[in-house]
Design brief:
25 helices; nine-stranded mixed β-sheet; four-stranded antiparallel β-sheet; 3 domains; single chain; elongated; alpha/beta
């Protein structure tokens, strides 16, 4: 069944919502259509073994529940769930539909039953019954063929996605928060699992984890990808999801595919990791872009400050407005020991984790940790307009703690921004997709690890720098001109003097030569003090400092102001330089700074907290800079010609209007 037919099936299922108009809000349609679709799919999957399960249900009567369930699961033919009721959607009575329907749903095994609880299914069943719509809705679903023979599990995944997208649109939610487009899932999965033959030996068990599982797209795709390239490998799927409905769909999808659902958890991964201390072979994630983590700030800050590197967030915390790097740190904490084969991660992030935050910031420290521990293997830039809810530029980061020897100490950047095809019909913000051939080409670029126009390879140090503080000396001139005397009593320290003392001070200053400009602070201070003493004015050190401040102005020609034999720095001229990691700080300073400002010096007290050396270490990945191609501007003659043609057209239009 092709994608076109899947869309038709999804459209037909959604059209059942026409029955609900008037009795239900548009934003509630999905909460009815989705669980009924799941129920019908589960019913179709169970249909071939239904009679055998019911036979066991009666045959094992009186035995402990666990034994009875074991027999029924066995009768269900290797599925992870069963239904012990003889009812089906097609055989529910029209007189007591709600009671029949709920007894039918209650007859599912525990994991399947729970799915309907997350949708608050019983509440909606009662509301449908009150509106006299329940029987009609049930009949429509009963007549829809969702059997595995007609629709594969992959196809059913696409139908669920379509329905969730329609649900999100009708309730003004963002669909992109719940699932990732299949082409992006396929690309990320292929990048992460390629060249991992050592993990996919026959009879091995491979674990896949997604901390933002959504409806389970990454988990399903990872499973399918591994099954398609290697035989006799067991794939164990693990995930956690925040949204109860997405979680319910993910769980249902896993059940239908025969996966163990015990490792699919509900809850906030950052504040309540329900798979703590577990480690995985492959991890795939598309965390929400630019979403703030204020709600869980306390738990995360506590873990960072109390547990440090024994927790998940040791390297640092990003700003509260974007939590995507927290998900990346969370995944890194779940990497298996390299001696046990290590782990690989594929995570989709927007542009800000590449460069947000200067030296010493949380973001920079996280990048520093990832790069200096040689965990970043590659970053692939994706085309714009790839997601349902945003058109922004996005990147796939590939991380590994078990790099091939040739990749050690290096990072590969791949520009995939031109690998796309236009969609015939856009879906939300998604106007472009990556074709199968383009995915293969990007995976090939990554695998060949060569320097080309689209693929560039850098040593780790290329992304690091030291931010040094460059100071320049303070140079001031001093004068007791009328203008400067006017500023004296604006100084806070001098405003506190009583009025008699203020008058005395002003008289003393007016006695000095107003026309003379002094360019040496030390000499002027001596002269000033002498004058104040002669006029019986006594000032404390802070008051004298305030007075000098009022009487001074910056002057590049003046002598340097000295303190304890050393030049005093002018905070207004303070500057910062980012020195590449590959260069010695003083070599750079002599070459780049001294020729322009010969009196500058480096503030040696500003050292890095980790290595104690001069300059604060920063890391950033200026992706676009490395792939920038200069486009020479058009010739002036051409631009003039275009402008003339344009003004001529405007003239003609004006003449036409006034004729």
């Amino acid at each position: 069944m092709n994608t076109e037919n899947h869309s038709q099936t999804a459209a037909f299922l959604w059209s059942i919502a026409d029955l609900l108009r008037g009795d239900f809000k548009q934003s509630q349609y999905g909460r009815i259509i989705l669980p009924f679709t799941l129920l019908r799919r589960m019913e179709c999957v169970l249909a071939p073994t239904k009679d055998a399960v019911i036979r066991e249900f009666y045959a094992q009567e009186g035995r402990p529940d666990t034994v009875r369930e074991m027999y029924m699961l066995r009768a269900a033919g290797g599925l992870q769930f069963f239904n012990a009721s003889s009812l089906t959607l097609g055989t529910l009575s029209d007189t007591q539909t709600p009671a029949d329907l709920m007894s039918y749903v209650q007859a599912f095994s525990k994991d399947a039953r729970e799915i309907f609880e997350h949708f608050h299914f019983e509440d909606f069943v009662q509301q449908l019954a009150s509106a006299n719509l329940l029987y009609q809705v049930v009949q429509r679903f009963a007549a829809t063929d969702l059997s595995p023979e007609r629709i594969s599990n992959f196809g059913m995944g696409i139908i669920f996605e379509e329905l969730i997208r329609k649900f999100a649109e009708s309730s003004n939610e963002t669909a992109g928060e719940h699932f990732t487009p299949r082409d992006i899932v396929h690309l990320t999965t292929s990048l992460v699992i390629t060249d991992q033959d050592h993990k996919l030996a026959p009879n091995s068990i491979v674990t896949i984890y997604d901390p933002t599982a959504g409806t389970g797209g990454f988990l399903s795709e990872g499973d399918e990808y591994i099954q398609s390239i290697s035989e006799k490998v067991s794939v164990s799927l693990h995930g956690q999801e925040l949204n109860p409905e997405s979680y319910a769909i993910c769980k249902a999808d896993m059940l239908i595919k025969g996966q163990d659902v015990a490792s699919i958890k509900l809850g906030n991964t950052l504040s309540n990791d329900q798979l703590a201390n577990k480690h995985f072979d492959f991890m795939l994630s598309n965390p929400p872009f630019g979403v703030e983590w204020k709600k869980v700030q306390k738990q995360i800050t506590d873990e960072h400050s109390h547990k440090g590197f024994d927790g998940r967030f040791g390297p640092g915390l990003p700003r509260v407005s974007d939590g995507s790097l927290l998900f990346l740190l969370h995944l890194v904490s779940k990497m298996r020991d390299p001696r046990d084969g290590g782990s690989r991660i594929g995570i989709i992030l927007n542009g800000s984790p590449l460069f947000t935050g200067g030296a010493g910031s949380g973001e920079s420290e996280i990048r520093r940790y990832l790069l200096q521990n040689d965990l970043v293997e590659a970053i692939v830039a994706l085309p714009t307009d790839m997601f349902y809810n945003t058109g922004i530029a996005t990147y796939v980061w590939i991380l590994s703690n078990h790099k091939a020897a040739v990749r050690q100490g290096k990072v590969q950047l791949i520009d995939g921004s031109q690998y796309y095809a236009k969609m015939r019909k856009s879906l939300g913000s998604k106007r472009q997709y990556i074709t199968e051939d383009q995915i293969s080409e990007l995976v090939r670029l990554y695998g060949s690890f060569e320097h080309t126009a689209q693929s560039k390879i850098f040593p780790i140090d290329a992304f690091g720098y030291r931010r040094i503080t460059v100071e320049r000396p303070l140079r001031l001139n001093f004068q007791t001109s009328a203008e400067r005397l006017g500023k004296v009593l604006e100084e806070k320290a001098l405003q506190k003097l009583d009025s008699a003392a203020q008058q005395q001070l002003m008289a003393a200053l007016q006695a000095m030569d107003a026309s003379q400009q002094h360019r040496n602070r030390e000499q002027f201070t001596k002269l000033l003090k002498k004058n104040l003493t002669a006029n019986s004015v006594s000032l404390s050190a802070p008051e004298l400092k305030a007075l000098l401040n009022a009487l001074s102005e910056r002057d590049p020609e003046a002598d340097i102001c000295m303190t304890k034999g050393k030049p005093e720095a002018d905070s207004g001229l303070r500057d910062y330089e980012n020195v590449p990691m590959s260069e010695a700080v003083y070599d750079y300073f002599q070459r780049e700074v001294i020729p322009h400002v010969p009196d500058a010096w480096i503030d040696e007290s500003k050292t890095d907290a980790q290595d104690g050396e001069i300059g604060i270490v920063g890391f950033e990945i200026p992706f676009n800079r490395h792939f920038y191609v200069f486009q020479p501007p058009r010739a002036l003659v051409e631009i003039d010609r275009d402008l003339k043609a344009c003004t001529d057209r405007i003239k003609q239009m004006i003449e036409g209007l006034s004729a």
